[in-house]
Amino acid sequence: MKTNTMSYKCKQFAMFAGVTTVVFAAVVIIPFLYGLYLTFTSWDGVSTQKPFVGMANYVSTFADTAYWQALGRTFIYAIIAVILVNVVAFILAFLVTSGVKGQNFFRAGFFIPNLIGGIVLGYIWKFVFNRALVALGESLSAGALSTSLLATSGGAMFCLIIVSVWQYAGYMMLIYVAGFMSVSADVLEAAQIDGCTNVQTLVHISVPLMVSSFVQCLFLTITRCFMVYDVNLSLTKGEPFGSSVMAAMHVYNQAFTYKNYGTGQAEALILFIVCAVIGVLQVYIGKKAEVSA
Amino acid sequence: MKKKILAMTLAAVMAVSLAACGGGKDGSGDSGNGGGASGDGVNITIFNSKIEVQEQFEEMAKEYSEKTGVGVEVYYSNDTVAAHMATRYSANDPYTLSMVDAKDVYSLAAEHAVDLSDQDWVSKTNYAISVDDKVVGFPVCIEARGLIYNADAIKNITGKDFNPEDYKTTEEFAALLEELVAGGMAAPTAVMKEDWSLAGHFLSETYEEQPEVEEFVQALYKGEADLANNSKWNAKMDTFDLLLKYNYAADSPVAAEREVSEQKLAEGEVAFMFGGNWDWSMINAYEYSENMGMMPLPQTATDGTNEKLVGGGSKYFFIDSSDNTTDEQRQAAKDFLNWLVSDAEGNAFLTEKCNLVPAYSNIDAQSLDPLSLSVKKYADEGKLIANYDYLPDDHYSKCGASFQKYMAGQVDRAGLAAEIESYWSSTTPVEH
Amino acid sequence: MGMNEKAARNKKINHAIKIIILVVLFICFIFPFILVLLNVFKTKADITTNPLSLVGEHGFTLENFPEAMEKMNFWRSFANSAIITILSTIFTILLSSMTAFVIVRNKWKACGLLFGLMIASMVIPFQVLMIPLVSLYGGILGVLSHRATLIFMHVGFSLSMATFMFHGAIHTNVPVSLEEAATIDGCRRWQTYWKIVFPLLKPTIATVAIIDAMAFWNDYLLPSLVLAKKELYTIPIATQVFYGTYSTDVGLIMAALVLAMLPILILYLFMQRYIVEGVTSGAVK
């Protein structure tokens, strides 16, 4: 059978990826393009009219200082959260692959936060920060704890970061666990015989061999942190005084609460471009590191 | 072998479901909101945006359907009303009857609402909304803002019956608060930190109590209003400072949880909180005191504003005018609105079941909750200052954020006034 | 001898420290769950008064459960959630694994393009697609408010990530030589795939299944846009009545949380072994 003819290729592609292509295009690509078109209109979201306005929405996006502030805030949040998530995840992975008793139990336990949706999770944590910690602080008469962390602008960001770490660390841990396990035992043994300490083995042998795990985890955490919405909404609602509004929430408010649909859509598009650039850049650098390692 | 069977089963499931997906597309004809689809009558959908009466509405829907044969389904969404309406309209799947806020009526009615000018109830209310000289908004109830008090808690300390009319000015009110503290109430007030309460309810009173409201708002847009030296603003803020000073969460006012505040107020741990009669739906979850009520916000004023609550019609029904709704459905919706106003059962539903202050002169309401009774009393006496319904959509969130800064001590009064002024001057005026 | 003993003792201490760190972190990780369990058996008033007390002043109560179940119409919502989650998950797995297979094994332009678009789509904020999706499927096609539509969209949105994961798994865990042997045996590609490749993907299938099932089960935004009819509500949408702007009933929220979490928790415990294995092996590349 000939396998290099056009008709064979088409048949094969259609057989395996045909449905996928159709569904993917219908749900993601076409709405995306339609959304792109909407950024050139001044639609308010409810009207039957969609007047064409050219670049006006992009102009007002650039004039929207609150948006750039939110984006800047998202950067800060994302950088800290990404680092912490990965550090915690890495430490967890290290601990649960070091042969301690019940490590499967621990692996499962750390993964549990992934079982709950963002909205619900935000409400639980709001309860923890606003009530439980405050009640605890009062009963211990520890001054710092007796007021809610969510009430200060720094505190609200801090809470968001804590919850993000809590939410993602378990999942990323599993990817790092995989990385640790892919480092072959022979290599590790050889290192030990050569007189490497545990730390040296970790830094010089395991880590370089786990670059692909790092790339994957970073990609996932970066994109998720830049698009954070659910937890932002249910945990802080952007409060206090709008100091914890992240980019996605600003976009949502702009489009729906303030009814500047076109501007909201344009701002969302810029957020997408930022995410895409950082994501791709990160993968690119990571792949290079992988090759050289 | 087992794997083959598994694979085949999966493939079969997939084929069936894909057919179902396809079927969904073909069946687009009946995916509206079931335009008279059921055999014995019309079906209508109602969007309710008052969460506290959702249960009552659902119960009523069942009974109403049984009695009239009109199928009624009641929906609620915890998205903002405007956002929810946007998604329903862009999906071409609007509700027959939608309960929305005044500002949404103004933004939606021109394109999407039915003219209700010829309805009987129009002559029985002062609160209906008209757009382009057509009545489009059916007022669901009257709601008002003011100071909620717990008279029992006050009496416990002062030993005298509490008479709200004795405390009209900031000074009188301050003296009472001092007396309460001296008598052993650690902190006599609660202040809500929610942006809708701060800016949507409290700050907006500053506009609503101006002698010329519209003029004042236009001046704000133009950047010409001098808020910092406005006497109304300063009178309001003096009282606000007082509430803040005696607030149980004075250490960290922006951390106050609404549930906790309502509980303290209900159980008499604090005596005052700025709010509205809707707060009863929270208060009644706790062991509330018997004698509670609402009074005008004390403030130093000579224009009589410290003798009135601020409020009026709240939440409006409009009927969808698009092709997605049939004439039969529209008629059924009109009948439903008439039932609410003109039928004894409809009246009882509004006032007894839902505890709403009726916006219609023919409806009598005896069994309301204490806060609503206060509101009704002020409304009946004509002592309600009207709501200003044309605030921009982002007013409450942006000015609310500024107010929270003030509560947290990050800006002073002048700074807050400046932030509010700059919000207004950078905002596109709402057309009306 | 002394040296060895010392080393052994050091090792023991090391081990103990690790266990202690793990236990502390573990408690941090499940603290919120403990809190939920602590409060779900209290009345609203007691939760507000003291969220940390073991039993409220009004005593132990189970009332939150029947009330929450009734208000969210639990069994109907549960059935909807289950149907939607199960079917969406099955389709996602079948479609994405097949697609990953053809992409990994062929260097065609179409494959590269599709895969590239899929990766790029993983960073599209959902807000960008929300209204266009509703306008297209509701406004133009008029197919919203069907479970099938939601399943269709769930699958569409999750294909990228799933294909990405299967891509890695096929790349590293399925030797080409096995397939070649099968081809020589006379298997067509289709049969090769189902007989040889698919069974080898079991760990990744378990991973994708649990990750997607969790995402579908918990998803709020998309179902809230698509399912405008009551009888179609899933659990997350049915519980939204508990989170009003002007009134919240914490007791009911707690009960709803437990009810919504329980099925997925049971599924998780049941599949735990596969998941840990699955995420592990699926992530190798």
What's the layout of helices and strands?
The complex is a heterotrimer of chains A (293), B (432) and C (285).
Chain A: H1 6-38, H2 56-63, H3 65-96, H4 103-111, H5 118-139, H6 153-182, H7 185-193, H8 198-209, H9 211-226, H10 230-236, H11 247-257, H12 261-292
Helix pairs in contact in A: 2-12, 3-4, 3-6, 3-9, 4-6, 5-10, 6-9, 6-10, 7-8, 9-12, 11-12
Chain B: H1 2-26, E1 43-47, H2 54-68, E2 71-75, H3 81-90, E3 97-100, H4 102-112, E4 129-131, E5 134-150, H5 151-158, H6 170-182, E6 189-190, H7 195-208, H8 213-222, H9 231-245, H10 258-266, E7 272-276, H11 280-283, E8 292-295, E9 309-319, H12 327-342, H13 344-353, H14 370-380, E10 384-385, H15 395-407, H16 413-425
Parallel strand pairs in B: 1-2, 1-3, 6-7, 9-10
Antiparallel strand pairs in B: 3-9, 4-5, 5-7, 5-8, 5-9
Helix pairs in contact in B: 7-15, 12-13, 15-16
Chain C: H1 2-39, H2 44-49, H3 64-71, H4 74-105, H5 109-121, H6 126-140, H7 147-173, H8 176-184, H9 189-200, H10 202-218, H11 221-226, H12 235-238, H13 250-282
Helix pairs in contact in C: 3-13, 4-7, 4-10, 5-7, 7-10, 8-9, 10-13
Would you give an account of this structure?
The complex is a heterotrimer of chains A (293), B (432) and C (285). Chain A is an all-alpha fold and 293 residues long. Chain A has twelve helices and no strands. Chain A has a single domain (58-292), classed as MetI-like (MetI-like fold, Orthogonal Bundle). The model of chain A has no long low-confidence stretch (mean pLDDT 81). In chain B, a hairpin with a 2-residue loop joins β4 (129-131) and β5 (134-150). With 285 residues, chain C is mostly helical. Chain C has two domains: 2-39; 68-282, MetI-like fold (Orthogonal Bundle), CATH 1.10.3720. Chain C is built from 13 helices and no strands. In chain C, α4 (74-105) packs parallel to α7 (147-173) and α4 crosses α10 (202-218). Chain C is flat. Chains in contact: A-B, A-C, B-C.
